[in-house]
Amino acid sequence: MIQTYHNYDLSAMNTMALNSCADTAIVVHDEAALPSIRPTGRWFVLAGGSNVLLPSVLNATVILPRMLGKHILSENDDEILLEVKAGENWHDLVSHCALQGWYGIENLALIPGLAGAAPVQNIGAYGVQLEDVLVCVKVYDWENSQFLTLSREECQFSYRHSIFKEQPNRYLITAITLRLHKTATRIQSNYGDLHNQALTLATAAGRDDIHAIDIYHAVIAIRQSKLPDPAILPNCGSFFQNPIISHGQFQQLICQYPTMPHYPINDALVKLPAGWLIEQAGLKGGGITPILTHTKQALVLTNHAPQSATQHDIAITQNHIIVSVQQKFGITLVREPVWVNADGSYQ
Ligand SMILES: Cc1cc2nc3c(=O)[nH]c(=O)nc-3n(C[C@H](O)[C@H](O)[C@H](O)COP(=O)(O)OP(=O)(O)OC[C@H]3O[C@@H](n4cnc5c(N)ncnc54)[C@H](O)[C@@H]3O)c2cc1C
């Protein structure tokens, strides 16, 4: 089933709370209806709106995948294959799995958005990325008008990237399949203070080993202590990707900034925390009104004029930060959220 609307207000449908209205919106409740949708002109898929920067006027058709349901495809003593429809809320899914004692996505708790959007930027947090548990993705291929199943390899995942970013507007993700584990063999807790916090929770529950539910609660507590809730202070999470630089450039910077946090990727590449770079550029809590970096986490841009600020306001603060960090460190930050143009194209 589908529902079609005109002059559709999207201001409450993006976590940055940008003022936005679309020509046409099509809400899809059943993927079987997809072949019958033939949007005239450009179209754009909007899920939970937590990783997009929308224009005031969107002269395009917005497609809202809202297919619901999850079911176990197969199960044995060790693992479970779970298929989840695109419209399921991601955090609710994580909660469900952690409560069931299924390991794999507990580190990805409290990431806003819908399950179908998770493969697009290969969501990641606290040492885990979606690709670690993803088996395959069901899609509707608009180019060839057919339903397909893409394997994890075909999704071409890398850091905050996938084929869905490479080939925008080609695929609509209808469902994802995850491989989850029933034992804690693959628990990932060596990220910052996560292990200690999870162990404290396990001990309080009378256990000496960490379960998925402990990681889940620890991640929620850590995130709530430093990230603003979009429902209270609109934002779209990390605004910039953590830059990956050459070892040579890193050697020069670490001489100048000996306390600079860094994460070696391999012998040739080092990842730096973008939030630290922004903070060192003197922009923690700064920016240009109404778009300011968060006082506890400079990587998050917050909107202090919900429902009236526009993309233009975002661009001003974004460019100010990029120039400041470039001047201080010689590093060009790259935006993480998707910038949607008025004609529905995006980058
Ligand atoms: C407070 C906060 C914290 C965050 N923390 C993290 C984090 O820790 N790690 C992380 O990786 N991200 C994080 N994010 C970013 C965001 O939540 C994720 O990228 C999320 O997966 C986006 O889901 P969404 O449903 O909101 O997608 P949307 O923002 O609606 O869409 C994002 C992109 O995916 C495309 N898309 C969405 N659904 C489909 C579909 N079914 N088929 C094809 N294309 C589709 C859209 O066209 C768009 O290009 C955070 C955001 C916020 C606001």
From TrEMBL:
- The yes or no answer to whether the keyword Cytoplasm is present is yes
PROSITE patterns xrefs? FAD_PCMH (PS51387)
Q: Which cofactor does it need?
A: FAD
Q: In which pathway does it act?
A: Cell wall biogenesis; peptidoglycan biosynthesis
Its chief place of residence is: cytoplasm
The positions flagged as active site in the entry are: 160, 238 (proton donor), 336
Q: Which residues form the FAD-binding PCMH-type domain?
A: 18-183
Q: A GO biological process this protein is involved in?
A: regulation of cell shape
Q: Cellular component terms, GO, for this chain's entry? A: cytosol
Q: Which chemical reaction does it catalyze?
A: UDP-N-acetyl-alpha-D-muramate + NADP(+) = UDP-N-acetyl-3-O-(1-carboxyvinyl)-alpha-D-glucosamine + NADPH + H(+)
Q: Which Pfam families match?
A: FAD_binding_4 (PF01565), MurB_C (PF02873)
**What role is this protein assigned?**
Cell wall formation.
Q: Which family does it belong to?
A: Belongs to the MurB family.
Q: HAMAP family, from UniProt? A: MurB
Q: What is this protein called?
A: UDP-N-acetylenolpyruvoylglucosamine reductase
Which source organism? Answer: Moraxella cuniculi DSM 21768
Q: From which lineage does this chain's organism come?
A: Bacteria, Pseudomonadati, Pseudomonadota, Gammaproteobacteria, Moraxellales
